[in-house]
Design goal:
globular, binds MU-OXO-diiron, 31 strands, binds calcium ion, Neuraminidase, six-stranded mixed beta sheet, mainly beta, 666 residues
């Protein structure tokens, strides 16, 4: 896939297109008169949903903290009156005999009992409704082998991230390193309780669990049993092994967790002369050492490892792993309160680079509705509407197994429509290459191409305001959009800084096929941004590359940034924004304030509070990722977070409390 850094491309260093040129083009199309920037921006990005002058004054108390400045420090900064403490960094023991974290020296067997690496989407599941006792469920998006194996032979000075693993003279990978890497992926479930003094502790509990790249799971929904998912492991196509690239997540109305499979395609290779479309359209690798970390080259030749090579090697698909990549790209349901239950791949939500999923507020007697973005350049935003209806206390995950998957078209006039991806609809027929529903779902991207969906600037997280039903989605950036490809919903060529789109339905009914949309904020610096209340971002809130997004019970919209692996020596268009962090916005007024900044090299991922809103959990993923091989060779890991004691930097959760015990953000 050719990522330069991290798991995703950062904003590139090419010159950003002048914002005003783009705005001129869009103003003309939407019929607004040219005026000063404030008027222009309000008309453009507020549309009919823009704030009234009264709202623009700010809603008293909703966002009450004093914003923090842009930071270039290797530390966590929170507003005055707040405290941040570390919880559950990678390597924290949660199972069995609780093997201790040993910097760069843990074994694979130990990692299977410890919290994984690269924390991302996360939820706090209260135990009995408590705000001081609950289960944290956290995704581990990918790994950085040089930090996992820092004390092992050959890892000093290797390059960052991809293709950065060490092969033996025989071209094979060490079995225990592979075991550890597979165990550092997936999802961690652990109990945490609030202690005297406001700290939180990881607690041993029978519900503590690791789901990894090897965990057996069920395939449910229309693709269960389909020819495309039959493998040597499951000739009937009903089981799969593992989950990967678990970026963001979702929480169902029936209180389970959904882990999204995002950049899974790069874990696989297929060296056949011609890849099938269900591999090629998703970016399965063609390089013999592809498969990202080379797990298929584990010295043991174990079945659990060779499955990452999806090349045809036997007489039939049930004797090899040509279909293994088709068992990835789904949303995976995990019940955190039932550690014995196998995770379930819910195939009716589609197969793509799922960033996460967000559910509309459930309405008794109405279908369940959820939204999911496909995070790659020029990919789409999807909606699922269940066939069955929400029955509190009775509905479970099986409601996701029948319904209709839709993809979004954003019209330039501020309206939009959901296009059904179903057999016989919108040209999805056998004559056009879509044999049945399972075929459509395995090839979700191709079906969306066929129906004419709108190509977006990398859809990341979605969030829904629980008080208004408004839906927000981050479009993180897209440096490859050309001027000819600009549209109203993706208004910038060479979009370095990203934006946030918002939509609403007449009457607030999420089942509807038509919606009205506008742009909530166009991110950037004071020169290149625009906000709904009029004008531009300023020192208190400039930001770039929105990624994580969550709306709390009071309607605070929390925005997290991922500008890639930005460190202190970074020079480029993202420099004015400092280190990645977290901001809070008022959807009613467009007011935005910077709440927190993080250490060097990380991105800010995953945000949730306790039910009472007084404790917030936030992740910092991949601190130190910017460190060069030369730095690493002399023991400079790029960042000290969170231990600051010359151990490897570690992804971790940060627990934020307000010193007066109040609601976070108030
Ligand atoms: Fe894994 Fe698109 O962020
Ligand atoms: Ca993300
Ligand atoms: Ca991202």
């Amino acid at each position: 896939m050719g990522y330069e850094y991290g798991d995703e491309p950062p904003g590139n260093t090419s010159a950003n297109r002048n914002f005003y040129d783009v705005m001129d083009a869009r103003v003309g199309r939407r019929g607004f008169l040219m005026a000063g920037l404030a008027t222009l921006a309000t008309g453009l990005i507020g549309g009919s949903l823009s704030a009234t002058p009264a709202q623009a004054q700010g809603r008293s108390g909703l966002i009450g903290f004093k914003p923090v400045p842009v930071s270039y420090a290797d530390t966590v900064v929170v507003p005055e009156g707040y405290t941040a403490r570390v919880l559950g960094p990678v390597g924290t023991p949660i199972l069995g005999d609780l093997p201790a974290f040993r910097s760069g020296a843990n074994t694979g067997a130990e990692q299977e009992r410890q919290i994984g690496q690269h924390h991302d989407g996360m939820h706090f599941f209260p135990i009995d409704g408590s705000s001081s006792d609950g289960l944290i469920v956290v995704n581990h998006e990918y790994i950085e082998p040089r930090f996992l194996h820092a004390a092992k032979d050959g890892y000093r000075g290797v390059a960052h991230n991809l293709a950065s693993v060490v092969y033996g003279a025989d071209g094979k990978r060490d079995d225990d390193e592979v075991r550890m890497e597979m165990a550092a992926h997936g999802v961690s479930v652990y109990r945490t309780t609030r202690q005297a003094g406001g700290t939180w502790a990881v607690v041993a509990d029978p519900r503590n669990r690791r789901v990894t790249a090897s965990t057996p799971m069920e395939i449910r929904g229309p693709v269960r049993g389909a020819a495309a998912v039959r493998t040597r492991f499951s000739p009937r196509g009903v089981m799969a092994r593992g989950t990967l690239s678990n970026c963001a997540h979702g929480v169902t109305p029936w209180n389970t967790y959904l882990a999204a499979e995002e950049n899974w395609s790069s874990y696989f290779l297929n060296l056949d002369a011609e890849q099938p479309r269900e591999h090629a359209r998703y970016g399965v690798w063609k390089h013999p050492r592809g498969g990202r970390y080379g797990w298929h080259l584990a010295r043991s030749g174990a079945d659990d490892c060779i499955r990452f090579d999806a090349s045809t090697r036997a007489a039939s698909a049930t004797r090899d792993y040509r279909n293994e990549p088709n068992t990835y790209g789904w949303m995976v349901e995990i019940d955190p309160f039932n550690p014995e239950a196998a995770p379930i791949k819910r195939t009716h939500l589609g197969r793509f680079a799922h960033e996460g999923v967000v559910f509309a507020p459930a309405v008794e007697g109405a279908p369940v509705v959820c939204y999911s973005g496909d995070d790659a350049r020029f990919e789409y935003i999807y909606k699922f509407v269940s066939e069955g209806v929400w029955e509190p206390g009775r509905t479970d995950g099986s409601i996701l197994d029948s319904g209709t998957l839709y993809v979004a078209r954003f019209n330039d006039d501020g309206t939009g429509e959901w296009l059904a991806l179903a057999p016989g609809q919108n040209g999805l027929t056998p004559e056009n290459g879509f044999a049945d529903l399972a075929d459509i779902l395995v090839n979700t991207r191709l079906a969306a191409d066929h129906v004419g969906a709108t190509k977006m600037d990398r859809p990341e997280w979605g969030a829904i305001d629980p008080n208004t039903g408004a839906v927000f989605f981050t479009l993180t950036n897209n440096t490859r959009r050309t001027q000819a490809e600009v549209d109203a919903a993706n208004p910038r060529a060479v979009n370095n800084f990203g934006h946030i789109v918002r939509w609403n339905y007449a009457g607030g009914d999420h089942q509807q096929a038509r919606f009205d949309w506008d742009l909530f904020v166009i991110a950037g610096d004071a020169r290149t941004s625009a906000v709904g209340e009029g004008g531009a971002l300023n020192d208190d809130n400039i930001f770039a590359c929105p990624d994580g997004l969550w709306c709390d019970k009071d309607s605070r919209l929390w925005i997290q940034t991922d500008m890639g692996d930005v460190g202190p020596d970074y020079e480029g268009p993202l420099k004015p924004f400092g280190m990645n962090g977290l901001l809070a916005a008022d959807p009613a007024t467009g007011e935005i304030k910077r709440f927190m900044t993080g250490p060097w090299g990380q991105e800010c991922t995953g945000v949730i509070t306790t039910p009472d809103g007084t404790t917030m959990f936030v992740n910092f993923q991949h601190p130190g990722a910017h460190a060069t091989p030369a730095q690493f060779a002399v023991g400079d890991y790029g960042s000290g977070f969170p231990d600051y004691d010359r151990t490897v930097p570690r992804s971790a959760t940060v627990v934020i409390t307000k010193d007066d015990g109040g609601v976070i953000g108030s």
